[in-house]
């Protein structure tokens, strides 16, 4: 099992997604159903102004949360975690070995690319992180089940990474 330091970014991301989802659910329930023409015009204008201010504050917060430094650091940490998890799956089965090897190399290359960009931007820590304790699979079944979980979570992580990188690519 990964150590607390390696798990905390994933737990934080999961908590953020859960809070975001529950907030959206609440907003959907609070959406007005029809026009309210009996409200005073001054009240409506004041509310519109407040909505615009909140939207601006929200956009500013999002920009700070999705800063290059934080994103690249989290991407690298996540890729580094998955490098260790994929290494723990070695010996899963002879027919899956080449695919696992290719996946390990691709994840390592991506992590290296992110790290090099962090160095170019002067954002890289002095030392690269060290791998924490990884799961030890005692049986073929555990390796196969672990492989399914790791592959599924890696896929979700990469989909999120893709969206974040697309966001950073926008002018």
Secondary-structure map:
Elements: H1 4-30, H2 41-65, H3 68-88, H4 97-120, H5 140-169
Family: Belongs to the IL-6 superfamily.
Keywords: Signal
GO molecular function: cytokine activity; granulocyte colony-stimulating factor receptor binding
The amount of beta strand, in percent, is under 5%
Low-confidence segments, ≥5 residues, pLDDT <50?
Answer: 1-7
Net shape: elongated
**What oligomerization state is this entry in?**
single chain
Rg over C-alpha atoms, rounded to the nearest angstrom: 22 Å
Order of helices and strands: HHHHH
State the distance separating the first and last CA atoms. Answer: 40 Å
Compute the average pLDDT. Answer: 79
Q: Major β-sheet, in short?
A: none
User: Structural class of the helices, strands and pairings?
Assistant: mainly alpha
Organism: Pongo abelii (Sumatran orangutan)
Keywords: Signal
Pfam families: GCSF
InterPro entries: 4_helix_cytokine-like_core, GCSF/MGF, IL-6/GCSF/MGF
Note down, in words, how this protein is organized:
There is one protein chain. The chain has helices at 4-30, 41-65, 68-88, 97-120, 140-169. Helices cover 74% and strands 0% of the residues. Helix 3 (68-88) packs antiparallel against helix 4 (97-120). The protein has 171 residues and is mostly helical. Mean pLDDT is 79; it is low at 1-7.
């Amino acid at each position: 099992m990964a150590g607390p330091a390696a798990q905390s970014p994933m737990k934080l991301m999961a908590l953020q997604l859960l809070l975001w989802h529950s907030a959206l659910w609440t907003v959907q329930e609070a959406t007005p159903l029809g026009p309210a023409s009996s409200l005073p015009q001054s009240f409506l204008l004041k509310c519109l102004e407040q909505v615009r201010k909140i939207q601006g504050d929200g956009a500013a917060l999002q920009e700070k949360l999705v800063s290059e430094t934080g994103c690249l650091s989290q991407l690298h940490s996540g890729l580094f975690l998955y490098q260790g998890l994929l290494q723990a799956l070695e010996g899963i089965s002879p027919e899956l070995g080449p695919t696992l090897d290719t996946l390990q190399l691709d994840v390592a290359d991506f992590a290296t690319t992110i790290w090099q960009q962090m160095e170019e931007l002067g954002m890289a820590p002095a030392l690269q992180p060290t791998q924490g304790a990884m799961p030890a699979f005692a049986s073929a079944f555990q390796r196969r089940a672990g492989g399914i979980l790791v592959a599924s979570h890696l896929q979700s992580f990469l989909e999120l990474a893709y969206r974040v990188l697309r966001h950073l690519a926008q002018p």
